[in-house]
Design brief:
The protein is α/β, with parallel strands linked by helices and 285 residues long. The chain is 31% helix and 24% strand. It has one domain: 3-Layer(aba) Sandwich (Rossmann fold). The protein has seven helices and eleven strands. A seven-stranded mixed beta sheet has the order 6-5-4-7-8-11-10, with helices on both faces. The longest helix has 22 residues. The structure holds zinc ion (ZN). Zinc ion binds next to loops.
């Protein structure tokens, strides 16, 4: 384990915020500490080092690595995923109708393959994936030499130990008029208050940071990126609710619908202030 300073303001000006378990290994003494800094950032501290973290990705149920079956939840999940892919494509073509694209932390390559079919010259990177499809693929970010018009990170930034290094990479590899598009869980998500420490996006110790609108903006500005567009992704609310419940009986099902409606209404009126996921499009200053 390692103890860190706040990655945004670089101070030790933080206080204990909440203690959470690992949702794949719920053992009493398997608790992780999350702190809140004066600057607003909420982050895991202490945290497993980069070498130690891989053991926490090895669980077969870890969602991005799980092979989907034919259960109702899996079928719903893949339907929702198809809609989400189209929405992400729609947001990207507002800026670039073609070009070369790098998807960092892209898991099994669903997004990279979708964008490739849409005519983008696509590269996929993921440290823990064993992708063997047709897209150019790297485990190691440092081996990538090309420059890109579009770099995407879907639910990946919150997993990265060395934020300074990844932003150095982004500044170096993104073309002058390029866009960096990312999505992260929103710590101000409506459904969090129902689940408290059981809220699935705490996902300790894999999620190292818990952003909201303000802390995400601060981090991006610090590293030379300005936000040009924000989108609230509503579908992740339902996914978070199902994951947080773990199992589903009739009562939980009714509760899920009520919480889900509350998320939907709040996201409709307050956008990324309350949505489960914040998606932003950025450009270099
Ligand atoms: Zn701070």
């Amino acid at each position: 384990m390692e103890t860190i300073n706040c990655p945004i303001c670089e101070t030790k000006d933080f206080k204990d915020y909440i203690s959470v378990g690992d949702r794949f290994n719920e053992h009493e003494d398997n608790q992780f500490n999350i702190v809140k800094c004066n600057c607003g950032l909420i982050f895991l501290n202490p945290r497993p080092t980069e070498d130690e973290i891989s053991q926490y990705y090895e669980n077969a149920d870890y969602d991005p690595h799980r092979n989907k079956g034919n259960s109702l939840i899996d079928v719903l999940y893949s339907l929702v995923q198809q809609v989400a892919l189209r929405f992400k494509h729609f947001v990207i073509i507002l800026n670039h109708q073609s070009g070369n694209l790098l998807d960092i932390g892209g898991g099994k390559g669903e997004f990279a393959e979708f964008m490739s079919l849409k005519g983008f010259d696509t590269t996929l990177q993921d440290k823990f994936s064993n992708y063997n499809g047709n897209i150019e693929f790297y485990n190691n970010l440092n081996e990538i030499e090309a420059k890109f018009d579009i770099i995407t990170m879907w639910h990946a930034l919150e997993h990265i130990h060395e934020l300074d290094k990844i932003f150095e990479f982004l500044n170096d590899k993104l073309n002058k008029n390029g866009i960096f598009v990312l999505a992260v869980p929103n710590h101000n998500a409506v459904e969090r208050k129902y689940f408290k420490e059981k809220w699935a996006p705490y996902d300790a110790p894999r999620h190292l940071y818990h952003f909201d609108n303000n802390s995400l903006t601060k981090l991006l500005n610090k590293h030379n990126f300005k936000i040009v567009r924000k989108n609230a992704l509503v579908h992740d609310s339902f996914y978070n609710i199902l994951l947080s419940h773990k199992s589903l009986d009739f009562i939980k099902f009714i509760k899920s619908i009520i919480i889900g409606l509350n998320c939907f209404i709040n996201t409709f009126f307050f956008g990324t202030k309350k949505s489960s996921t914040i998606m932003v499009t950025c450009k270099k200053y």
